[in-house]
Amino acid sequence: SIPLFARLAGVEQPTLGLAAMAKYLRRPVPTDGRPDAETLQFAGRSLPVDASTSLRINFFGAPSRPYQQVATFRVVSYVDVLRGRVDPSVWRDGLVLVGALGATGLADDYWTPVSEQALKMSGVEIHANVAATLLSSQFLHEVAPPTSAMLVAVLALLTCLLTVHLRLIAACAVVPLLLSAFAAASALALYAGGWLVPLASPLASSLVCFFFLLAVRVAAERRELARVDALTGLPNRIRLVEIIRGSPVKRDSSALLLLDVDRFKDVNDTLGHPAGDQLLRDLAARLRRSLPESSTVARLGGDEFGVWLPVASADCASSMCSQMIAALALPFVVCDREVTVSASAGIVLRPEDGDSAETLLRRAELAMYSAKHSHSVFARFTPELDRHSAERLAMIGALRQATQREELVLFCQPKIDCHSGTLAGVEALVRWQHPEHGLILPDRFIGLAEEAGLISLITRWVLNAALLHIRSWLDAGLEVPASVNLSAHDFDDPQLPGIVAELLEHWAVPARLLTVEVTETAVLEDPARAMDVLSRLGAHGVRASLDDFGTGYSSLSAIQRLPLQEIKIDRSFVRDMALAHRDRAIVRSTIELGHSLGLRVVAEGVEDEATFRLLAELGCDQAQGYVFARPLPAGELLSWVREYGGTGIPEGGVAGPLAA
């Protein structure tokens, strides 16, 4: 930006370049340097000037100089002119400016924005640029401020629209392309028409908008991802809690259904995790289809789902729950295999069962576990469940410490040979000697141990204690086989057979004296794994017994597949067999079936002498029940043997002082 006028002694005078051009063009020099608008009319030209009557000129590159110039004029030295090295025709019809260029102290040189290598541009060259610019009309036109402001606004708005409406990855690609195109168009406008298009303000504004909105979108998407289950695309627990909190409490009830898929672990372990993931996606899709659009289906983790019904009565929630579980009961096709699953659900209503989302989720979980334990399809929450929940949590904590504080106690119940009346073995049973609640039976804490993941520790403790007592009985001259119950969760422990082998070796107990008892229900939860564990135990010489025979759905197939040496007739058939013809027929058939398969048959729940005599007549091998003895501490077995003496039924029925 070079001024066209200078004020000297209070009078504006044209600069050398302007005066020289006026002389060259034989035109008068403007006397008023202040333009009326944004241009200065001179010699038929409209000069784009600013408020200080300065002209913007462009310095183009010149290879002969370290700085830039218009390059429409030629620089010639006096020496070349005097020595005749320059053809005089170069001056004809031309404009010549005379000035000093490089002599130190003589050149009126100045710094310019394009000065390089610590060199300055002389005043005569500056004025030559002005004159050449005026002569060639190579002016730089500056975009007017209103137009510049509009350009800033339009580019920033377009950047915002693209950043907001395009996908995040697309916006990151398109917006930089847009800004690059704008910069290229600005350069083209400068090159082709001499227009100075402002770059800094539009680009800075657009970049600020882009990065701000980009940060907002990234943060929003992260928040959204934190509320969506990545596998199924359903809302997760965090989002479900937000939805429940955001739902207004109405006069009509709302319902929360908590659903847990049964036997999902079998699919995951048998077919692999990809198949399990596909099953979860199919489960989620089927749940969405089976429920109204106003409901919210969320995956809470693992194979657990939650359903929020904004308006639902108790009957409506039960109906929806039945409909949902019926839909899940239909077969799924996973990895070209047909898979069937079942589910258990818990139902809570708002406001009847609570207001807060946390309370509703906790109580729905209690109702769901109640449904599982009662083998029901679903269960409604009741206040009684909540009263027991605090006690349940306290019991789990105390049970975790009981395994470390040696509060577990081994009891045993004798098994009697039906033909000789002598002791044939014992069933090892665990009791919990609680410091405050006294002796606690297993039906109160085994289920808690399974839920809390403590059942493996308890099973190992019982195995060690049973083998310890077998060793002590052997040392006392009494060979007493013992059977230990295994939980379904014990089959998930691949180290169990190895641990049993180590314990047998440690206590120097023959493996034939140890029997593991499994229920058919436990086997059916994972037949392949149960078969593997029992086979590995059998390889060490440990016997296997099927407990509660006759109460399952496929007992015959279980006997056929499993490596068994014994079956135990459930007490429900034995208890009334002396009076009930059907029960007696079932017991007789079971005994005949077991013997035909080469299995020992044990009857549980023998409570009177008549039943024991009848079992002996039917050919049952062993009997177990209160008629002989209640479960007694393992350390008292030798005393009981001396008192019992193997003489058959103790006098008075139950074994003397141990009856209490």
Task: Describe the protein in words.
This protein is α/β, with parallel strands linked by helices and 660 residues long. It has four domains: 2-141, no CATH class; 143-225, no CATH class; 237-381, Reverse transcriptase/Diguanylate cyclase domain (Alpha-Beta Plaits), CATH 3.30.70; 393-400 and 408-650, EAL domain (TIM Barrel). The protein contains 22 helices and 27 strands. The strands form eight sheets. An eight-stranded mixed barrel has the order 18-19-21-22-23-24-25-26, surrounded by four helices. The radius of gyration is 49 Å and the shape is rod-shaped.
What is the CATH T-level topology of the largest domain?
Answer: TIM Barrel
Give the strand line-up of the largest sheet: 18-19-21-22-23-24-25-26
Topology, number of strands = 27
CATH hierarchy, class of the largest domain: Alpha Beta
Strand content: 15-25%
Oligomer state of the chains in this structure: single chain
The CATH architecture of the largest domain is Alpha-Beta Barrel
Contiguous uncertain segments of 5+ residues:
60-71, 647-660
How would you sum up the major sheet?
8 strands, mixed, barrel
Instruction: Report the end-to-end length measured between terminal Cα atoms.
Output: 114 Å
Q: What is the general shape?
A: rod-shaped
Mean pLDDT, nearest integer? 79
Helix content: 40-55%
The helix tally amounts to 22
User: Which homologous superfamily in CATH is the superfamily of the largest domain?
Assistant: EAL domain
Rg value: 49 Å
**What is the domain tally?**
4
User: Which structural class do the helices and strands define?
Assistant: alpha/beta
